[in-house]
Specification:
By secondary structure, the chain is mainly α. It is built from five helices and two strands; from the N terminus they run H-E-E-H-H-H-H. It has helices spanning 8-16, 57-70, 77-85, 94-107, 115-224; strands at residues 45-48, 51-54. A two-stranded antiparallel ribbon has the order 1-2. Strand 1 (45-48) and strand 2 form a beta hairpin. Helix 1 crosses helix 2.
């Protein structure tokens, strides 16, 4: 299909995302008209090979634009997918739907065997895979730039806190040492005060002894040597 065909983006969107477009589809000339689309609803949680999660609108639009730009000229997987979608609501089983869509595809001028479907589908898968690889590289880069910076900040803060904690331990040890010394000083003050007072008392006794002796001698000199 040529890139310029009107509405291909909406067609791609409706192929892969249920209830993505609230506007009813118009019938085509080459097949039965699909049932009107239901009003858009909130993204539902889905589970597939990628895990469980919600389909994100911004990524839906991204993939739609990507596939729209990559659409190959001529009938291929997308045209078959469109025919397959036209089989919905006819009460056919899955196998019958695929077979009827294949018959409709061949009427549209598609190839006579399914090779073109497999080849074109593989090409689109390759385009999606290449886009995913590019996205994951961007994710890795963002993690290194943003998360890495936060992790580096986290590491520095932990190292700073560890240094502060060690400083607190060191300061506490100094405080404890000072407290022990304060206790020792109190005892030493009492001890030294007692020693000094004892020495003072000895000094005074000795002093008085000398003074008394000298004064006694002077008194006797005055008495005996007149």
């Amino acid at each position: 299909m040529a890139d310029s065909e009107p509405g291909i983006g909406k067609k791609i969107l409706s192929f892969f995302i249920n209830d993505a477009d609230a506007t009813p589809q118009k019938p085509t000339a080459t097949g039965p008209a699909p049932e009107p689309s239901k009003p858009a609803s909130a993204p539902a949680t889905v589970t597939n090979a990628a895990g469980a999660g919600q389909i994100d609108k911004k990524f839906v639009e991204h993939f739609v634009n990507l596939l729209e730009k990559a659409n190959l000229p001529g009938p291929d997987y997308f045209e078959y997918k469109q025919a397959l979608q036209g089989m919905e609501g006819l009460g056919l089983g899955e196998e019958k739907q695929f077979q009827a869509a294949w018959a409709s595809f061949k009427v549209m001028g598609g190839a006579k065997d399914t090779t073109v479907l497999k080849t074109s589908a593989d090409q689109y898968l390759g385009i999606l895979s290449k886009d995913r690889d590019s996205f994951l590289k961007d994710v890795e880069k963002a993690i290194k730039e943003r998360v890495g910076a936060l992790q580096e900040e986290h590491k520095k803060l932990e190292e700073t806190n560890a240094a502060y904690a060690q400083q607190i331990i060191d300061l506490q040890k100094k405080i404890d040492d000072n407290k022990n010394r304060l206790g020792q000083i109190s005892g030493e003050v009492s001890e030294q005060t007692a020693k000094i007072n004892t020495n003072k008392d000895s000094f005074e006794v000795t002093y008085v002894s000398f003074v008394d002796q000298i004064q006694s001698d002077l008194a006797k000199i005055n008495q005996y040597l007149q």
